[in-house]
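The data are quoted verbatim for completeness:
=====
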Amino acid sequence: MNQSSIDRGLFRSVFYRTYKDEEKCNGNMTREVFEKPNTKQTVGIKFAKYNKLDHDGIAQPGTIVEEDDIIIGKTMTMTQKTDLGHSKKDASTSVRHNENGTIDKVLVTINEYGNKMIKSRVRSIRVPEIGDKFASMSAQKGTIGMTYRQEDMPFTSQGITPDIIINPHALPSRMTIAQIMECVLGKACALNGTYGDTTPFENTDPNYICDLLKKEGFQSQGYETMYNGMTGKKIDTQIFIGPTYYQRLKHMVQDKVHSRRKGPIQILTRQPVEGRVRDGGLRFGEMERDAIISHGAAEFLKERLMDQSDAYTLHVCRDCKVPAIHDFHSKESFCNVCKQSSSVSTVRLPYACKLLFQELMSQGIVPKIAVE
């Protein structure tokens, strides 16, 4: 895609994200109130900025907000005070991780149950970047692979540079002839200032379109001689060029980017949770494991599948080879099977492995861990 065209505003779009919250009421036990949380009265204050809120707990339209900024302040009354005298619990809404923008509109109303409800809409301007998705009207979709400035783009003898360059291999296999006809007819109509129609019911003869273009002094099938923008030299082959209607799709790389260093883990397996929304890990699956085995990188494999996932220390009885009990305060170990405390070893293994052994033991199958 032409970076200079993008800078002039090509395919620039607006993305809206709506955040909604309401004052729920669970009888006389707990009550929710929209307000700016007071740190002296409220427990569970999030690690985020509350300074964008007004006294009523709502951020004003026009406020610039970043990720994890609080935009709707809400507290819940607790049944009894804490030791430090806190009587409320924080239940505020923050801007999503990896998103930012300007508060566009705020609506304060009541829902069907008569409870107060707030909708806050955040607006962000999206400029096309590498990885964003586009498509022609013939469902030829693709993502930006590279952007070049206008001076580096190929140009025609008239000095016209393209906004988008697509790979022509997308056309023969998918047989999207309509896009080629649209491009050639669009070029002819742009030159003689008329409207064209190549919808299926018109049954337009392609030769008629070619004749129109030829009358304007161009190559009949939409080819032109182009010049290399970087060297200025003529390109040996003729290149198909013309106007085509393109649209921007909602799949943007900014909404999909994800990485994690440390983060939440599942309670059952103690492995990282799944999904971008929950700040989860990226699954290193069986096929990735096979690739690393083929490289012979055993230490890296152990790091991915255990150290970076669910490493766990288990105490094992050397005599009866089953998990033993370890007291971390007295630093003593004891085997519940052979009733001895002398011969206990520590073993590093994935927590999921320990879990499997325990589940098998619950069925009467006892896996024994042989320790040297």
In short: The CA atoms of residues 13 and 126 lie 5 Å apart. The chain has seven helices and 21 strands. The longest helix spans residues 177-192. Helices lie at 3-7, 170-174, 177-192, 206-215, 286-295, 298-307, 351-361.
